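Trying the structure run again after the queue cleared.
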Amino acid sequence: MGDNVIVLNYTKINSQYTNHFVFNALLDRLPLKEQQRILSYYQHEDKVRSLLGRLLLLEGCRQLNIEVDLNRLLYDDYNRPHFAMDLDFNISHAGKYVLCGIATTSKIGVDIEKNRSMDLDDYKSLFSEKEWNEINASNCSIKEFYRRWVVKEAILKQMGCGFSLSIDLIKNLKLCKKKVHFLPIDSDYTSVVVSSEDILKVVVNHNSLV
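Done. Tokens:
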């Protein structure tokens, strides 16, 4: 692949994945350590999302002709998983979608959110005054809110620190446009990939893992 080409694979959760027979068959594709981690989740829905995320990771690596061993996954101080090689990945899920981005020349973060109606004022403290004014001045405040929100979430995931940052730092998070790419997955959702380097191209693939 060329300089900073990001491969983004996603799948739509359906009744096949939630079927226990299919779930167990898919689970067997992973090493025992990963199976145990996935089965440690209490809710079956969380087990399914975690399983699909790992399978999408493997599929993306296959597309890039990169061999990885999930037993060699490492975790940083914020519990962000990574490999000891020039490969970065990030996984996100919301509603009926799970997605996984992979890059070999940059550090990335991905996020997807379902566009739901809600009281935006609950999130005012997490945006700069300029951002907040632009959200409220938009023709569709909810959509504009989510476009900005997923970018913040993706940056935090890229950094690996999540919401452990102070509110003042979170409200001022931003990237230049060349490092942000919105994903055309579903009009009812907002999804994005951000990168530590300018994004040349994002290859988006819809996968059926069954």
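The mean pLDDT is 92. Worth checking whether this holds up in the mutant runs.
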